[in-house]
């Protein structure tokens, strides 16, 4: 048989046998559970070999790398793409060639113009060839410019490919679990690291369906967390918060509605899974004052 400490028995008995003490205008939340709001399990969207992951207990800030895969090959491909994206020499060569072809064509036309009505310096077929060569040279410039733009896009593609070899966290938090380690292969979507932000907790539970119609997000809540202490004793830590969510669905068997409230844990005094109770303040609106009889006499 499993053995429990005194404080564990105290918490269990309190949850099972002691109903939440309510005053007028308060609604009890049934089966409340304390859990962290931000819990992220990171994976990659490609196969690869892990190069670096943080250790359990390591503190990370948003923007830091969580998972790094080996990226020697894509890094080399990016270097090639960068070199091509910066190389505009083909455009310069094509432009010079086009300029030479234009000058050659214009010079031939000028020679024929000076010859006047006498024998032309260049026959029409020669002039036509020069014109076609000039137009083809202009197209070569456009082709070189298009190739340059494609190289820039290929560089951007290589950068995106490089980024897929690492995962960055979007939250501050502590590493709570590491499922894969450096040198291990990983498949697409496979869990690698889990990070939890302990700054904010959520108390989630249920209220009776008839009480749910009285609730609105933003209503004040009173939370009491059972904190274990030395010598197998416990103490109750009262915390105030606000109701954050009332589900739009009624549980069919229990006729209850799920609700939750978030509480601050910036001092990291609380841990997920501690025994907790919660009640929602639902003070009825004050009755409108009765109209007073007018003293004016007509």
UniProtKB/TrEMBL annotation:
- Record Gene3D superfamilies: 2.40.30.170
One GO MF term: efflux transmembrane transporter activity
| GO cellular component annotations of the record | efflux pump complex
Where do transmembrane segments lie in this chain? Answer: none
Record SUPFAM superfamilies: HlyD-like secretion proteins (SSF111369)
Per its record, how is this protein called by name?
HlyD family secretion protein
- The organism of origin for this protein: Planctomicrobium piriforme
Source organism phylogeny: Bacteria, Pseudomonadati, Planctomycetota, Planctomycetia, Planctomycetales
């Amino acid at each position: 048989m499993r053995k429990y400490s005194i404080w564990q028995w105290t918490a269990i008995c309190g949850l099972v046998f002691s109903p939440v003490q309510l005053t007028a205008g308060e609604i009890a939340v049934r089966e409340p559970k304390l859990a962290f709001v931000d819990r992220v399990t990171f994976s990659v969207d490609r196969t690869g070999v892990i190069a670096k992951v943080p250790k359990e207990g390591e503190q990370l800030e948003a923007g830091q790398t969580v998972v790094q895969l080996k990226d020697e090959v894509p890094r080399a491909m990016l270097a090639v793409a960068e070199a091509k994206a910066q190389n505009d020499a083909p455009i310069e060569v094509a432009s010079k060639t086009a300029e030479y072809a234009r000058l050659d064509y214009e010079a031939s036309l000028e020679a024929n113009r000076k010859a006047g009505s006498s024998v032309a310096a260049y026959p029409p077929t020669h002039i036509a060839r020069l014109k076609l060569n000039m137009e083809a040279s202009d197209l070569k410039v456009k082709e070189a410019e298009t190739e340059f733009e494609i190289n820039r896009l290929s560089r951007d593609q290589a950068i995106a490919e490089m980024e897929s070899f690492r995962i960055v966290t979007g939250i501050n938090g502590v590493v709570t679990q590491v499922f894969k380690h450096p040198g291990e292969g990983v498949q697409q979507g496979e869990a690698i690291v889990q990070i939890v932000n302990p700054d904010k907790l959520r108390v989630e539970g249920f209220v009776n369906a008839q009480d749910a119609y009285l609730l609105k997000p933003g209503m004040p809540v009173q939370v009491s967390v059972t904190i274990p202490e030395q010598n197998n004793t416990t103490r109750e830590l009262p915390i105030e918060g606000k109701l954050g969510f009332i589900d739009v669905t009624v549980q069919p068997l229990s006729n209850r509605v799920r609700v939750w409230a978030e509480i601050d844990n910036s001092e990291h005094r609380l841990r997920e899974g501690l025994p907790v109770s919660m009640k929602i303040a639902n003070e009825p609106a004050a009755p409108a004052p009765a109209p007073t009889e007018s003293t004016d006499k007509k």
